[in-house]
Structure formats: C-alpha cells, structure tokens
Design a protein that fits this description.
The complex is a heterodimer of chains A (about 400) and B (about 260).
Chain A lengths: L1 E4 L19 E4 L2 E4 L18 E4 L14 E4 L2 E2 L2 E2 L1 H17 L3 E7 L3 H9 L4 E6 L8 H15 L3 E5 L2 H14 L3 E5 L1 E4 L5 E7 L4 E6 L6 E5 L16 E4 L12 E7 L12 E5 L9 H11 L2 E4 L1 H5 L20 E5 L5 H4 L7 E6 L6 H4 L2 E4 L2 H16 L1
Parallel strand pairs in A: 5-8, 5-10, 8-9, 9-16, 10-15, 11-15, 18-19, 18-20, 20-21, 21-22
Antiparallel strand pairs in A: 1-4, 2-3, 6-7, 12-13, 13-14
Chain B lengths: L1 E5 L2 E3 L5 E2 L6 E2 L5 E3 L1 H17 L2 E7 L5 H10 L3 E5 L9 H15 L4 E5 L10 H9 L3 E11 L2 E8 L2 E7 L3 E5 L11 H9 L3 E3 L19 E6 L8 E2 L4 H15 L2
Parallel strand pairs in B: 1-6, 1-8, 6-7, 7-13, 8-12, 9-12
Antiparallel strand pairs in B: 2-5, 3-4, 9-10, 10-11
The chains are: A alpha/beta (about 400), B alpha/beta (about 260).
The complex binds flavin-adenine dinucleotide (2 copies).
One flavin-adenine dinucleotide (FAD) binds next to helix 6, helix 7, strand 21 and helix 9 of chain A.
C-alpha cells in the first residue's frame, strides 16, 4: 500500500506537481521524486500520462453495494422551523436521486415536529422517517447518533446528506465513525460520476484548493454540505409522500451529556450564516462606534453584520460576527466589505459569495482582487450616503 | 486529572499563496506550525491542570518531523508527548486518523479528558475529534468556547451559530475547542530548555496494536481523486467619480442584485 514513482517511466515532465496538495513531489534531474512530507493520499494518481505514478490500492468492497439505495437528507430545525440548509439539501438531493433513479427521503428527529414532516414532503421528500420524543427536542450527539445509525443500518441508504453546520458536523462525523463509512466535509459541489458514485467537491487549505473525493467501497456515501451553496427545493403543496414513524426509544447505554441551557445571542436577529446579505466591517472603521455605520446599512438591507478578526480581537464586535478561516463561512447573495483589507484568512470565509462589493480607501487593497464591484474611498463618507440612498428606494 | 491533547502539524496556510500564472499553490518557504486551534487546546489543558492538578500529555500522528510540534507543546508546559509514526499511517482520511489516534490514546491508558482543536486548518474537516470519541465510546462536546471543572463534572459552553449551549458532562469526555476559549501562552525559557532535552515517545503501528487494515490509505473509505485551485475573480468593476455618483451607482447595483 502506498504511492510510488517508477523511474523508468518518468520523463520529468512535471505534470504531477500541480496535483499534489502537499507540495510533496519534486522534479530533479528530469525525474520526479516523493519528498518525505508525502502523505500517500493518492491525489497524484491520474496526473501522469506515462503511467509512472503507481498508487497501490488494493481496497475493495466488503459489502454488497447494490443493497444500498436512496438519497437521505437529515433535517435540521430551529425553533419549530426547518433550517434553510435542509431545503437546500432537498434541492440538491432531488437532482442526485433523479440521476440515480432512486428516492429522496428525509429524517426528522425532535418533538412536535409533524408540521415540519409535511414541509419536507412539500419540498420533495418521498418518505420522511420521523422520531418524536421529548428528549429529542434539542439536538444532542448521543441520542441523535444512536437513532440515525440504527436507521442507516436497517434501511441501507446509498447517500446521506447533512448540513455543514455546528450541529451537522458534530453529528455526521460521529455517525460515519459508528457505521464505518467515509464522510466528506463541507461540500460545495455534488454530482454522480460515470460509475454511479457520488463525486464530492470541497474546499480545503482555507479555501486555497478544491478537492474532489469519492467513497468507492463503503456505504452510505456521506457528505456534509455547506449552507447557502445549493438552491433550495421549491415548495409544492401537491407533492405526496409518506410519513414513517420510527422507533425512538433511547436505550440506557446512550451517551448523554446534560444540556443545561441554550442561550441565543444573535445580533440583529439575523443568522449570519443564513443571511442573503452581509455587511462586514474591518479595522478601516477607525473606532468601535463606527460599527453603527455597518449595522445601519445591514438593517436598511435586511442583512446581517460581519466583522474581520482585527475588529473582533480589538473588542469592537462580538466573536459570533467574525467571518473567515477562524470565524464563520458565509455565502450570501451580496457581501459588502467595508474597510477590510482582504487577508487570505478573511477571504476563506466569504470568497464564494455571489457578489462581493468592496469599499476601501486603498486602491491596492487585496480585497479588490476578489471583489466584483469596488469603490475606492472613505467609508465614513460612503456608508452613511449609501444607507440614506437605499432607505429612499425602500419607500 | 489526566488530560490528553491531540495536536496536528499543519502548513501555515497564511503563507500559502497562489501563483498568479500557473494557478498552483506556492509552498516554498511555507512553515509547518501547530494547528492554531490545537494551541488553544493545549492552553485549555494547561489551565485545567493548574486549576485541579494532574498531568497533560500531547499526542500527534504524523511523519517523523511532526516531533517538532510536540517539542513546542513541551515548551508550553505539558508533561509528556507521544508521536505515532509509521509508513502504514500514510494517506489516512479522518476515519483512519481517528482510529489510529484512539489506539494511541488507549495505549497511554488512564485519561479523564481528551481535548482537540475545532478543526485543522489544512484538512478543515472537523471530523477527527468526534471520530476519536466514537472509537473510544465516550461522549463528545464540540466547539467549546469555555470550560471548567465543577464538582467532578465538566461544564462546557458549546458555540452555536446563533448563541451557545451550556452542557454538563461526566468524565471521560472528548472536547474540541474554538479559538475564543483562550489565548495560548508563549513558551517560557525554562520550557524551551526542557523541550530540547525531553525524551519523546515514538510508537509505530505494532506498538499501539493497530490493525493495518484500519490505518492509512488501507483504512480510509474516502479517496481524493483530484485537486484543483479555485478560479478567482480578478476584475472588479470599479465605480469611479465623485463619491455621490459612486454611491448612486452602487445603490442601483445593490437594488438590482437584491430583487
Ligand atoms: C491563523 C490565522 C487565522 C486568522 N483568521 C481570520 C479570520 O477568520 N477572519 C479574519 O478576518 N481575519 C483572520 N486573520 C487575520 C487576518 O490575517 C487579518 O489580520 C485581518 O483579516 C485584518 O483585518 P482588517 O482587514 O479589518 O484590517 P486591516 O488589514 O488593518 O485592514 C484595514 C483596511 O481598511 C482600509 N481603511 C482604513 N481606513 C479606511 C477608511 N476610512 N475608509 C475605507 N477604508 C479604510 C485600509 O486601507 C485597509 O485595507 C487570521 C490570521 C491568522 C494568522
Ligand atoms: C485536500 C484534502 C481534502 C480532504 N478531505 C477529506 C474529507 O472530506 N474527509 C475525510 O475523511 N478526509 C479528508 N482528507 C484527509 C484528512 O485531511 C486527514 O485525514 C487528516 O489526517 C485529518 O483531517 P483534518 O486535517 O481535517 O483534521 P480535523 O478533523 O479538522 O482536526 C480536528 C482536530 O483533530 C485533531 N487531529 C487531527 N489530525 C490529527 C493528527 N494527525 N494528530 C493529532 N491530532 C489530530 C486535532 O486536535 C485537530 O484540531 C482530506 C485531505 C486533503 C489533502
């Protein structure tokens, strides 16, 4: 098992260099060689036209893959409403299910969730497996993992999609380890390849590279999917589907922590990660009070407030507003960056916004490299004028 | 209280730049560092030890050069360090990584708390922590922004998208931390000296009794089939002219986009 380069076949063309996420291939004296930071991931396998790279991979399926059918979406909800990522999963899940000629199903756990089960059907789920229990009212790793893992073992889905939220990432990785299958994190693109496998594409290295990942020999194929990437499934009240109550009994062995309290502290009442418009401020605001300029514009647009790490660290904005590699990843329709220089760690959290607008007084600020629209100028002047102008349009 | 901290060596992605013409990663001169969230995990462990006493052990799985980050951890003040290193561990996805680390942790034995980072800044999956907890059969609390011992139980604030949860759990438990939890300390001079001399345990697959079918590429259900760099937009439309005019144009653009 491992990656080898066959010296007699290598022509030193360097085509493989690009394929390595670790920069672990070196071409010296017209021969490629592996450096000691090679992780053996095999990403270089297909890059060599001369067959000089051998990825010895004698893995094979130990289960009958044909038994596994259907695309499952694990529904996430908050205060009695489905999270928008769930509808997005149904939208994308529908396409995958159609390509595979399989059914789209949803899993819903909670308490008093009957209405949401119907909503899932209106958004395309053919079957909704539903587990109702007071102890499921709030998400908890232990019981949710037990119930969903049992369902997976019983019904054998082909694909399981989960939102890449704090809840979804916590749950998905635990389930994948329990049912012993692969899990691709934070996908931004999904497709069915020519072999009928789920091709999962995701950013890594803080958004600097994209990787496409398969799970060839294990089932289900599991992926967490970044919110705000896919279009939500349209609502259609004429859709029909079945609601199937499932065993929700929690056995005594279930690993339970005590959930004492859930505290909400969302500023502006808009969830940053789900907002369609984000107005974000950076050190260019000059002083903490000027965050109000950001808040006012966000309010005028019905958007959420984002912040660079610089102003979070300075205490001008609470940490839950931080966008970037060590903050939140957002993918709104419009991202307005005000007085933010555009450090790569900030870009990691917002560069896939549909439209990026940058306001910065420095014409060479790196933020303009990713922006679709830019204004070079003083935000103290521009923001109030823009807010005023947009409020006029609103009336 | 015995605490084990999982730390990973990562390239400093801050330094990673994209070559403007070839559109590939430039890695020359990119340093290897302790995953930033794992530095927070080390700090959290040291603070708990200072509060209630005990021992802190750091563990990493990686190639032989990963020993550098263990020395950094020793310099910060931890007591013991273990490197899991074997050709058979190469190419591991998160399932195989979690299995290997869990086997290493079992071999260390007596533990009350395992702390890791929220995610690694290269792989970015946030999957290894929960994977370890599952293999060890212990509960997990992810995205911790605050924790303390309270009457033999661990009290944790777990970050949510729009707030946080307060969770009380018995030990042993696995916790992953976000950067808001603390400010990692700098190594002391004494620590740096200690780190140089410290004997670091190195275990291979046989030492930890790992089944080679479950480690490395062999034990990994996922397979990376291609890598590419995302296309970045490089041509912004600059709205020029007097501020009033630029604002007017921008307002029109926003109104149009926001329908
Ligand atoms: C491991 C690591 C993780 C990190 N994670 C994150 C993260 O998650 N998120 C994040 O944001 N950062 C992160 N950073 C920090 C990042 O590298 C930058 O330091 C930070 O993003 C800079 O914030 P800024 O753009 O607000 O400040 P600056 O870089 O100081 O930029 C301020 C900008 O404002 C402009 N300006 C000044 N005055 C005005 C004015 N009156 N009108 C208009 N423009 C003006 C300036 O021209 C400048 O471009 C991380 C760093 C590290 C090392
Ligand atoms: C481009 C690319 C994409 C990838 N995508 C996936 C994917 O989608 N799914 C998948 O299963 N694998 C994936 N992998 C493989 C994955 O990066 C490795 O398995 C890696 O060893 C662990 O994952 P991570 O870096 O995401 O760690 P995370 O799960 O993000 O790390 C969380 C915490 O676990 C601990 N930890 C992680 N690794 C170690 C270690 N080696 N030693 C000690 N502690 C550690 C640390 O405390 C860390 O803070 C990918 C690899 C590449 C190169």
């Amino acid at each position: 098992m491992g990656v080898y380069i066959l010296d007699d076949k290598c022509v030193g063309c360097s085509a493989c260099l690009k394929s390595c996420p670790f920069g672990a291939i070196e071409v010296k004296d017209k021969r490629a060689g592996l450096l000691n930071n090679c992780s053996g991931c095999g990403a270089c396998a297909d890059s060599c036209k001369f067959g000089a790279i051998v990825v010895e991979d004698n893995r094979q399926a130990e289960i009958d893959l044909r038994q596994y059918k259907d695309v499952w979406v694990i529904a996430e909800h908050n205060e009695g409403r489905l999270r928008s990522v769930t509808l997005e999963l149904l939208g994308e899940g529908r396409k995958l299910a159609d390509k595979l000629h399989q059914d789209l199903c949803a899993l819903l756990l909670g308490e008093e969730i009957g209405d949401m089960a119907n909503e899932l059907i209106c958004h395309g789920a053919k079957k909704v497996y539903i587990a109702q229990e007071p102890r499921l009212a709030h998400y908890q790793t232990g019981p949710y993992t037990d119930i969903i893992s049992n369902l997976i073992t019983t019904y054998k889905p082909n694909i399981v999609l989960i939102g890449a939220t704090n809840q979804g990432r916590d749950l998905a990785s635990r389930i994948a380890a329990r049912v012993h299958t692969g899990l691709t994190a934070d996908c931004t693109e999904l497709d069915i390849n020519e072999d009928g496998l789920l091709a999962q594409t995701r950013p890594a290295f803080g958004g600097n590279i994209m990787a496409t990942i398969l799970c060839p020999y294990h089932r289900p194929q599991m992926a967490t999917v970044r919110p705000k990437v896919f279009k939500p499934a349209p609502r259609d009240t004429s859709c029909v589907g079945e609601i199937l109550p499932v065993d929700s009994c929690l056995n005594g062995k279930c690993l339970l922590c005590d959930l004492l309290e859930v505290i909400k502290e969302a500023g502006q009442g808009v969830n940053l990660e789900e907002a369609e418009i984000v107005v974000a401020g950076g050190r260019g605001l000059g002083k903490p009070e000027n965050l109000n300029l950001i808040k006012e514009l966000a309010e005028a647009l019905g958007g959420a407030v984002g912040a660079s790490r610089a102003i979070v660290d300075a205490g001008w904005a609470p940490a839950i507003h931080q966008v970037g590699q060590t903050g939140k990843t957002v993918q709104p329709k419009i991202y307005i960056a005000c007085g933010i220089s555009g450090a790569v760690q900030h870009l990691a959290g917002m560069q896939s916004a549909d439209t990026i607008i940058a306001i910065n007084k420095d014409p060479d600020a790196p933020i303009f490299k990713v922006a679709h629209y830019g204004i070079v100028g003083d935000l103290l002047e521009i923001l109030p004028a823009l807010t005023r102008r947009l409020k006029q349009t609103a009336v | 209280m015995n605490i084990i901290v999982c730390i990973k060596q990562v390239p400093d992605t801050t330094d990673v730049k994209i070559h403007p013409e070839t559109n590939t990663l430039i890695r020359d001169g990119v340093k290897s560092i302790v995953n930033p969230f794992d530095a927070n995990a080390l700090e959290a462990a040291l603070q708990l030890k200072e509060a209630v006493g005990g021992k802190v052990t750091a563990i990493t799985m990686g190639p032989s050069q990963a020993i550098d980050i263990l020395r950094e951890a020793v310099a910060m003040g931890i007591d013991d360090a273990v490197l899991l290193s074997d050709r058979a561990f190469a190419g591991a996805d998160t399932l195989a990584t979690a299995y290997t680390l869990a086997m290493g942790i079992r071999k260390i034995g007596d533990y009350d708390l395992i702390i890791g980072g929220k995610q690694a800044i290269d792989g970015d999956t946030a999957q290894v922590g929960p994977g370890i907890a599952e293999q060890l059969g212990i509960p997990q609390v992810t995205y911790a922004k605050h924790m303390k011992m309270d009457d033999g139980m661990l009290l944790v604030e777990r970050m949510l998208e729009d707030g946080y949860e307060v969770i009380k759990t018995a030990l042993p438990v696995l916790v992953t931390v976000v950067k808001q939890i603390n400010e990692p300390r700098y190594p002391s001079l004494r620590g740096l000296l200690a780190a140089k001399k410290k004997e670091i345990t190195v275990w291979n697959a046989a030492d930890i009794g790992a089944d080679e079918k479950r480690t490395g590429l062999a034990g990994s259900p996922t397979r990376v089939v291609s890598i590419f760099t995302p296309q970045r937009n490089t041509k912004a439309v600059m709205l020029e002219g007097e501020p009033e005019k630029a604002v007017e144009t921008l307002a029109e653009v926003i109104t149009k986009l926001n329908i």
